[in-house]
Amino acid sequence: MEDSIYESGMAYHFLIKLFPFAEYIADFPVLISAAILLISFVFAGITSFILSRVLVRYTKKTKVQWDDQIVRALRRPIFWTMIFLGLLLAVYPFKFSKSTVDIFQSAAVTLLAVLWTGFALRFIRIVFRAMSRTAREHSLIRPQTRPLFENIAFIIVLIIAVYVIFRSWNIDMTAWLASAGVLGIAIGFAAKDTLANLFSGVFILADAPYKIGDYIVLDSGERGKVTHIGIRSTRMLTREDVEITIPNAIMGNTRIINESGGPYEKYRLRVKVGVAYGSDIDQVRDILMEISDEEPEVCSLPEPRVRFRAFGGSSLDLELLCWVETPEVRGRVLDIINTRIYKRFNEEKIEIPYSKHDLYIKEMPGK
């Protein structure tokens, strides 16, 4: 039979140094264990009181709220850590074999790993939510990207916890890691398209070339409003109220025009119009400016302007440049302005020329 830890004297001398009174009750292991448990409960209670009363009262004076949540979350794991350590020390006075003590140690490490893993997950959630609430436009962690980074952090914490638990029971992880590597390679080949969409989704969420609510135009010509940005795909709603789902791998490798990007969301309209040669250019300018000023959807800043672009083949080509608040109203405002220009030109007898072709008959047939 293996020598016990107690008989070897290691635990005994440790307890004598830690608790001097243990020398007088050395022949009563139950009393020593009870004293150790009592002291561990006292220390756990004092620590819990300090966290719940003193530190919480201090953190309530700060401007942020996440530190209060962390202190409250820290109270439980610290309390039970002291209790578990007390239980582990309370085992030593008994004449258990080394293998039995190792089982107690492995069980204690497992319980502590589970306890602190729960705290780590809660800590990550609190910190990431606080960071997303105060995030700027181009911050890495924002409300849209927070779930992604939370899940990645959760996976890392769980992997570390599993590794610690396996090591505490002296389980060799080499075979498990080799199997996981082979399995990862097989999954990578089988789901390469899915993984491409996944990584592209991560880069899109991190780089933020567009966001939900933006109007974008793809290389293929589709234009619409972004309604969802997921890990696998992006969805956009066209002006025909048709929802298009595009894999993120395509979105990450195509040219995208973000009409809502830039310093502000305003969108510039270019209203092209041609008038006949001989028309009064100043009068045309005044009419176009008047129409833009009368339209409430047109922004006053930047100011509308008219540009004389070219001498066309059959017309003088002008362009009214004005801004609207969002790209969403582009089509409606353009329709209103074009209608008013046509009606106003008719009233002012300003000719809008169209392409004309003269046909000359050189010789009548049959002659």
Give a structural overview.
The model is unreliable at 1-9 (pLDDT under 50). The chain starts with a helix and ends in a 20-residue tail after the last helix. 54% of the residues lie in helices and 13% in strands. It has helices at residues 5-8, 10-18, 29-59, 66-91, 98-133, 146-168, 174-190, 192-207, 248-251, 281-294, 330-347; strands at residues 215-217, 223-229, 233-238, 243-247, 257-258, 267-275, 305-311, 316-324. It has a 5-stranded antiparallel beta sheet with strand order 4-3-2-1-5. The protein has a 3-stranded antiparallel beta sheet with strand order 6-8-7, with helices on one face. By secondary structure, the protein is an alpha+beta fold. The chain folds into 3 domains: 5-171, no CATH class; 204-258, SH3 type barrels; 267-347, Alpha-Beta Plaits (2-Layer Sandwich), CATH 3.30.70.
Task: Please name the defining characteristics of this protein.
disordered N terminus; elongated; Alpha-Beta Plaits; five-stranded antiparallel sheet; alpha+beta; three-stranded antiparallel sheet; SH3 type barrels; 3 domains; 367 residues
